[in-house]
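Archive entry. Fields below.
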Amino acid sequence: MAAFSTIVLTPPASKTLDILDHAILVVIADIRTDWLTPVMRALGWPATGLALQLLWLANLIPLLIWKRWRHLIVWITSGLIVNNLVWNLAGLLERPRPFGIEILGDWKGFAMPSLPLAMLATFLVSTLYSNVPAGRPRQIGKIVATAILVVVTLSRLYLAQDAPSDVLCGVVIGVAIPLVLFRVFVPNDVFPVSYHRGRTAHLTIDERRHDAIVHAMEDQLGLLVLEIKPFGLEGSGGSTPLRVKIKSTDEADAYVLAKLYAANHLRADRWYKLGRTLLYGRLEDEKAFNTVRRLVQYEDYLLRLFYHSRIKAPKPYGIAELTPEREYLLVMEFFDNATEIGVAEIDDDIIDQGLMTVRRMWDVGLAHRDIKPANLLLRDGQLVVVDCAFAQIRPSPWRQAVDLANMMLVLALRTDTRRVYDRARVYFTDEEIVEAFAATRGLTMPSQLRQSLRNESHDIHAEFLQMLPYQLPPIRIQRWSIRRVALTVFVLACVVIGGLMAAQLVINNPL
Amino acid sequence: MKRLIVLAIVLMPFAAGCTFSVNVGSDPTSAGSPTCESAKSSGRTQARSGLLLMAQSVRTASLVPCVRVLPVGWTYARMEATNKYARFWLDSDRGGARALRVSLEPTCKTGNALEVPSLRTDIRRYDRVDAVQSGYRGDRYLKFRGGCVTYHFDLSGEGSYGEVALISVALSFVSRSDLAESVREYSDDRLELDPTPSSGHH
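PREDICTED_STRUCTURE:
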């Protein structure tokens, strides 16, 4: 771009460029015929405002349906950058339309760089990197996009709407900027374009990452990896869980669970905690982590704390570093043949184990904070608590009370409220149970538990409330602080501004 | 995080240019100031590019509007040129933003505007003044061979009549032949402003 600007702003070079462009256009204009002109006009249609708007809207729909928000943001950002850059460069270079040739098509503003071709190139590259899966489809897409650009360029040169150097300058900007933005901010190995349902933010285990995991687990943890398979991706938003088959002295297959953490999970954690801060207020400790290392260290520490507190939780095997500060594996015991409590048969023994788990957490000063069916597994008649990433040490009594009520609600899903309530009175006083149900309602329940309760034919929560000897007024969970108010105002302002900008982008044509 | 900071730094100048309403489809800021003096200089200077672009907008126009010297308080705002028309706007510190819009088109409808004597024999002038509470709002049509220039005044505040007189004197025309000659000079007779029969006239 610097070279282009220098040429155009330096009189002798500028003159040479004008004359060269003119010579090429004269040659092209010599082939103009009555039948070819309408054909060329039609071929130039992709670089019109209407066509570009349709292309943008056609991209917007799949981006929204498949929730590729990052791709959408980069799409819009690259479009805005190219649009503004080209307009401002055109204003700086002030190059008129081609001299001495009859211009047969529509045009607007100064000629260099060509805005229609810059925007077409940007939209085509953005389409490829946001909606076409990597691999063969994208390779074919690149050929198609190049063909479209070549055809439209020929059309615009034939109609003399742009000079060759205007086109070249526009295409260079239009290809380079989205290409760089997509490769830097939504790299394909971290944010692959996929049309499969489910979370797309999980990391793909390609050959490079597979080898890195194998070497790291062997060198750092002494585990010989035989096989790596993604496991339970749909239930995990905070990490990419992997079931890793390892070499064992036993004849039976041995597995460990390895949770892969990277920068995208750190961002997911940040957004999740921002949402909780807005919803809950100041009752929660919702400080986001600054680095992936700290995120993994925290979960590993809590896992060890649970395990060594004799709470039935996965045995921790340690952390393996794949890329310093960027990618880590948290390795722990894998519960083979375990069943989620939401689909298992539950007897009084299991109910007791669940309640004793809460009692034990209370006694050692822990709160799990995410008691839901997916985090309670049954294996060989033993109840195991998993996923303690959100756990808290020395929590507030309110937070501990919520764990108790959530555990009772989960246990009642597969049994009945009376049985659970009667067993609970063995381990907890009436006051503790009453307080637990005063603290637990709506937002304090994990969303999976809320959904499971809604699916039941009877109101389990209400049944528990009726059994209580007395009821306390619900504990107010909405606590406001200056930080929460400021954050709420900021987020609302961002949503409004974003909405207005999005409306403008949808309504206006990009030229 | 580092990438986000880099993105924010990269986006900052563009966001500044974006304004609140997203700069999609707007024009570059003050490019192409059409000053009459620049038409006479040789070479495709920055200032003259605006005049050349206006001439390319209306191929038939024998004259192209330009600004001699802007009176104190008046500034050039922006320009818009397409293959159908060309316009530029002038701001006045007393009359307001976009106080004057100068348009060049192949023809114009004068409607109920009254013909008044013109200072130039090759131009016919028509004026229409709209009734306004304060300020000045009206149109002046200047018809000539192959084109028509419209001055659309929209000034607010006291003293608007004086401002109109002041800016009217500052506006002038450059002939297409002068512009064509400057293109020839600039290119050592290798380029022409308008199409020649041998260069793809269709």
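CURATOR_NOTE: Chain A is about 55% helix and 10% strand.
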